[in-house]
Amino acid sequence: MSKKIFALVMSLILVFSLVACSKGGDGKKTGDKGKLVVYSPNTENIMKTIIPMFEKKTGIKVEVISAGTGELLSKIEAEKGNPLGDVLFGGSKSTIREKKDLFEQYVSPNDKDMLPDHKNVDGFLTPYTADGSVILVNTELIGDIKIEGYADLLNPKLKGKIASADASNSSSAFAQLTNQLLAMGGDYENETGWKFVEQLLKNIDGKILNSSSAVHKGVADGEYAVGLTYEDPSAAYVRDGAPVKVIYPKEGTVYLDAGVEVIKGAKNMENAKKFVDFVISKEAQDAFGSQLTNRALRKDAKTGDYMTPLDKIKTIKEDEEYVKKNRENIIKKYTNILVKTRG
Questions:
Q1: Which helix (H) or strand (E) holds 316?
Q2: Which string of b and e fits 316-328 if b means at least 16 CB within 10 Å?
Q3: Distance CA 190, CA 216 (A)
Q4: Containing H/E element for 214?
Q5: pLDDT per residue over 56-102, tens digit each?
Q6: Measured in whole angstroms, how far is the alpha carbon of residue 54 from the centre of its chain?
Q7: Which terminus has fewer CB within 10 Å in the chain: N or C?
Q8: The pTM is what?
Q9: pLDDT digits (tens, 9 = 90+) for 141-200
Q10: How far is CA 322 from CA 297, 317, 325, in A?
Q11: Domains and CATH numbers, the chain
């Protein structure tokens, strides 16, 4: 073989080796140091606040794929072995925990700064915000009726003036239901709690709405004096000057965490870990707590004036495993009571 041909052959081998290395040993692209693909069910407000902050801080360009949590989990499962996304940002802790095989084990060094009950205890799921069940009151309609907790909602003067969504098809209404059972009965099977639910449904008097958004909107717009809803939109109305007040039930409020996770085999693995670190950094948690209307979970996070400090709220803890296993039974019992109260 001539020297010229030998040199040509070696050059071709070098070129093919570089191409193979750029794709990884299995032929898959290994990732772009300046890129991150984020799958998220989060609201536009969250994404427009947190993503630009991360991009500015790191120089990493983020591509966002938005869809519901269930749809995104199905997508991640379908892409198993060759993931197109790097991070799942959002979705309830109880839902994500069922899919742990889809995510990398990763505990951020910032996890040590999170509140005791909101740390990464699963190894892959990092809680970053929580939402709680609240009572939203229209201050122009409520008059002299005192509302400090769930028990006050049984006041006959409120009959037909309380709005609620259907716990059988609204996640926030279901969270309200399990919160009531814990707060008023001590657990999910105690008949004292279920008796309260029955009395409350009677006082609601058929004001069961089709969506959770119709509840808080109805209270803010003056259609209802009281609504059983959740903290995020309620705090937003307060921040924006609506004639409403957020009541945290004195019997106790359940907070349910949302999580951020690194997708197993992520092509932009290091950038994905940086994103998790950032979401629970002081900078991002301050934004959640003082710019947005989400409940920050970092111990030293700032809280906006429109948000009640967490240490001023009586909280109670949901038994996530029980609720997951008994969800259908809880809904069935609720539905039977609802039909009975309408009968």
A1: strand 315-316
A2: eebeeeebeebee
A3: 29
A4: helix 212-220
A5: 999 999 999 998 777 899 999 999 999 999 999 998 787 788 789 99
A6: 19
A7: C
A8: 0.72
A9: 999 999 999 999 999 999 999 999 998 877 788 889 999 999 999 999 999 999 999 999
A10: 24, 12, 5
A11: 35-130+257-307 (3.40.190.10), 132-254+315-342 (3.40.190.10)
Q: HEC profile for 65-116?
A: EECCHHHHHHHHHHCCCCCCCCEEEEEEHHHHHHHHHHECCCCCHHHHHECH
* Tokens representing residue 339 in the block: 């039909």
208 token code pair: 């069961």
Q: Which of 176, 241, 237 is nearest to 209 (CA)?
A: 176
How far apart, in whole angstroms, are the C-alpha atoms of residue 45 and residue 189? 38
Which residues have a Cβ under 8 Å from the Cβ of 229 and sit 6 or more positions away? 133, 134, 135, 136, 172, 176, 212, 215, 216, 219
Residue with tokens 């409350």: 200
> Tokens 């995104």 belong to which residue?
72
Question: For residue 56, how many other CB atoms are within 10 A of its CB?
Answer: 9
